[in-house]
Amino acid sequence: MESIIEVKNLTKKYESLTAVDSISFSISKGEIFGFLGPNAAGKTTTINMLIGMAKITDGKIFYKNNDITNKIKKFQGCIGVVPDESNLYEELTGFENLCFCASLYGIKRSKREAKAKQFLEIFQLSDAADKRFKSYSKGMKRKLTIAASLVHDPEILFLDEPTTGIDVASSRQIRSLIKNLNEDGMTVFLTTHYIEEAERLCERIAFINKGRIIKIGKVQNFIEDISQSNIIEVLFESTPIDKNVLLEKLKQSFPELECSFKNENTIKLISTSKIDVSPVVSFLSSNGIYILEAKLIRPTLEDAFVKLTGIELDVMKKEKEKK
Amino acid sequence: MKSAIAFWNILLKDMKNYYLKPPNISWGIIFPFAWMLMFFFRSGKAFQIEEIFAGIVAMSILFGTTSMLAVTITFERRGRSFDRLLLAPISTGLLVFSKISGAVIFGIINSFIPILISVLYFKSPVANWYLLFIGIILLSIVSTLLGLSIAVSAKEVFEAQTFSNFFRFPMIFLCGLFIPLASMPVYIRPISYILPVTYGVDILKYSISKANYLFVWLDIIVLIIFCVGLFYFSIFNIRKKWIV
Ligand SMILES: Nc1ncnc2c1ncn2[C@@H]1O[C@H](COP(=O)(O)OP(=O)(O)O)[C@@H](O)[C@H]1O
Ligand SMILES: [Mg+2]
Fold this sequence. Notes:
The structure holds two protein chains of two kinds. Chain A is elongated and about 75 Å long. Helix content of chain A is 36%, strand content 28%. Chain A has a six-stranded mixed beta sheet with strand order 6-7-8-3-9-10, sandwiched between helices. Chain A is built from eleven helices and 14 strands. Helices cover 80% and strands 0% of the residues of chain B. By secondary structure, chain B is mostly helical. Chain B has one domain (2-242). In chain B, helix 3 runs antiparallel to helix 5 (92-121), helix 5 (92-121) packs across helix 6 (129-153) and helix 5 packs antiparallel against helix 10. Residues 14, 17, 19, 37, 39-45 of chain A line the site of adenosine-5'-diphosphate.
């Protein structure tokens, strides 16, 4: 595949903190490439360096094989950026916002008005075209921000956590819009801390944590790698003993199993060999746990993520609540 | 061409959104008017319009421009919409130029009000109209750039407002607007000389009633140097501080 952006050993230091630590990756033309990682992993910082909103401490960025590390301004005309927070003008209407954004790229009046109308339609915002941006709901704001990043026909779209903090219906709509854009040929680079979102949207992903890329590859390959292992989930009603104590006991009794809590009522067991459920079930029962169900699970990207990063899913879920 | 479209639209948007909003327009009219009235009442009937003409014009420019840009830019920075401008494929120089143009035009328009009142109502003579306009334009540019320098150092709208007041109120007294430089204590004068507004006021005084203290050509050259210096200082600061 023809690479459109290539990043080599990109590093960002804020005084003593290394926010992005020598990462390398490339984005192919026409793909959706995703950065998946928890809060403070360095996702936004990476995007900011690529779009010219953060100074680069070290490393190089190539656009179509040309080194643009020190001249990102020249490349800004070919990219669309949707930041994690909307950055449109509160006091302008939806239509005026789109027209103004297009004018910054030197698009003539008749063309930018046509573009604005077209995008308001695509994003189902025509009814709100003449309402001020500040009266928009969060979902509408995000949609208009995406529209504003597209009015100048960019080649690559950067989306920083496009569905974070947005209601479910709008999120679904935004995901399908991203899919459609990509089907029409748009190259997309997005960041997210939703595993399902990465799985649903991206062709390739990079797991990023503490400024480092842990693994990079096709979603399919991640899942295939982990499907070598067997996963069993045990659903129970409640536990009379402390979760952590229970985990310790399980690990002692079954050292060959990788045990974790998926949620309050589910224990997850992973092993590279076949798992015999009955000793586990009787062990749990003898600890006073009433078991509802034990089932074999098809491994998902989640499992790959947990295995590779060592980040518990609970941590990612808490991130969501924080937002 | 593309740059021209971007420039024009940034200017137009700022004009519509900030400068032509009712509170700003009335502020620009009322403020110089109120000062004239104040002088009128304080000195009873017999005050010479020439004595305060230049000062009032300078003040309406100073008040119309410095806080304007400081507040609007800090406001856009907080709402993150300023990032839009930094993300657009236009140079920082053009961006600064577009942003200051609105405030400069606003300052020039503001200065017309005291001029109209002085000339039409008080029948004040003007010695050199060309120089008056040159002075007005240079003073508007330099005080807008002072406002921008404040915007670059402030984080909050409130902070920008406080900073700009902190600078412009002393300037009314230090830059010879109403107290002539010649009658100022010698130890204060060095401060006056490092403030660009001093030179702008001197041009206004010369062009209205030849009551200047310095040399007009020197004033113009010094102001141009200040404008260029502050312009590049702002560009440098934006690149340094806002793209971290
Ligand atoms: N302007 C800044 N100054 C100092 N530290 C920063 C700045 N921006 C981000 N960081 C730090 O860099 C790290 C990565 O942040 P960020 O890229 O925003 O993470 P993410 O987008 O993955 O949540 C964090 O530890 C954050 O605190
Ligand atoms: Mg982020």
